[in-house]
Amino acid sequence: MTSSPALPTRALRNGTEITELGFGAAQIGNLFRETTEEASQRAVSSALDDGIRYFDTAPHYGLGLSEGRLGRALHVTARDAIVLSSKVGRLLVDSPETADRLDDDGFVVPAATRRVWDFSRDGIHRSVEASLARLGTDRLDIAYLHDPDDHWDAASTTGVDALIELRDQGVVGAIGAGMNQSAMLTEFVRRTDIDVVMVAGRFTLLDASALDDLLPLAAERGVGVVAAAVYNSGLLSSETVDRAAHFDYGAAPEAVIDRAVRIADVCERHGVSLPAAAIQYPLRHPAVVSVVTGMRTADHVSSTVARYRAEIPAALWDELDATGLAPDPARRADNSV
Hints:
This protein is α/β, with parallel strands linked by helices. It is built from eleven helices and 14 strands.
């Protein structure tokens, strides 16, 4: 069951309706620090209460912990009322020899399994089957090829072909790729029969590089875009810019910090918080179907939904565009028509 009306949705070309704000489940896989099962359940329940109906996870997140927790938290929710996405490309393989130590890839979980890159047909099928078991469902609404940066040849051939096969069988709905770059995602859109892409960190107030390649082609081909990592690892996540905050998983360059401060000043003059502008910015482009942010607690969910709902005057976007601080995606899309 679900307990409130859904947030506004946008549709993929196969008709799947996705809420404009999505729940990123990496943090409930113990990303960087431990999160309890109870806190994870409350976060997912709060998301449902606040109208979020799109939930994104991956085997990579906590070596399956995120998928398991998400599945348990959603098990009483009507399956047709939500959209679930997970990812393929990293198979989880038993690793008893490392079970006594912690994972070394950012998640605070025992390393009882290890990740193995595999974009083969068999690997994709096995990955989806394992994800369905952990999530406790019979289908994925979206399946993304996960971070295939160093695996273009396999991912763009056997990987996509395997997902198309599963799409034809109804085991997955929409198919696509998710990456921290826009150039290769653009090539997936150009060369393969995918429905959606997830671009992390390349369509934000501080880095709108996806506007130059990915967004125009996605709009032309009818491929949906999900924007993730819109805070660029933290620099845009607070009303006042923290000069010690990370940018793209590392120390932020001074020039980037200074630009973030200038953007925050513009937001303040217009009565808008910097994080609210960061969340709503990608949604100004018609090819974008959702913004996914990581959410660890119920309070985090509530604050994120409040940012999504905040009223932002058009004059803010006009000023950011006119000053060269952040190009207006809506104006750029209009000019490309």
